[in-house]
Design brief:
Blueprint: H1 2-15, E1 28-29, E2 34-41, E3 46-53, E4 58-68, E5 77-82, E6 88-94, E7 96-102, E8 107-114, E9 123-132, H2 142-154, H3 156-225
Parallel strand pairs: 1-3
Antiparallel strand pairs: 2-9, 3-8, 4-7, 4-9, 5-6, 5-8
Length: about 240
Amino acid sequence: ISPLIEAVDTYQNQTVKDLRPDVSDQELFWGADQYDFAIVLPATGLDCFWHFAHQGERFYLNFMVQWVTGLANDKHLSVIVNAPSGLIMSSVDDAKGEIAFIAGETGFYQMCFSNFHNHFGSMQIFLNFGVYYEGLKDFKKEEEIKKEEEREHLNKTISTMEESSNRLQTFMFHMWRYYNIERMRRGTDYFLLQSNSSYVSTWSAVQGFVIIMAGYLQLFFLKRLFDIKPTTETEKPRC
């Protein structure tokens, strides 16, 4: 994974001087808590995205290689997640994986995906990443926490309903993540079936052509064995 680390370091040195003026808005993710989409990496390609996270939020990234084209069929993908300060938070080198951690600082977290294992083939990757809160009290001031505790004492019913709704929302969010992982697996199986169908069709056509040509050559040589030249007074058949 060292080539990816060197490439990421070079990329960071070029962009750390300014607030990434050369990066488009499509690569900087600000508002929503989760994103899911697919990208295509060319041979030995490197693509990076940035997602904003506050300190204390939980950052997660799920990825899966759906298909690989070209001469090489290595599905290993190298992934590195860097903190805003440049510290490497986590790295994975596999066809699919999950990265999750609690953000230690506020800023843009960089996700880099490298296809340096394949020098002659591209790959399609499905990504699912974002941030979410484990608790609502982590970012409140002490005075607000005291007021919240007093309100909870005054009305325990509302507090219980609020806690239950937050737990339900967290469970629904995790169910949505599991649904996306299952959708990635189904997409991988679909592309694998397409690849196998194309492989079988191609080789069936090639084998059919080889069989027809072999029959034609056999018939041609058999006819040559029975090729009799007409006899004349000067040219007579020889033993």
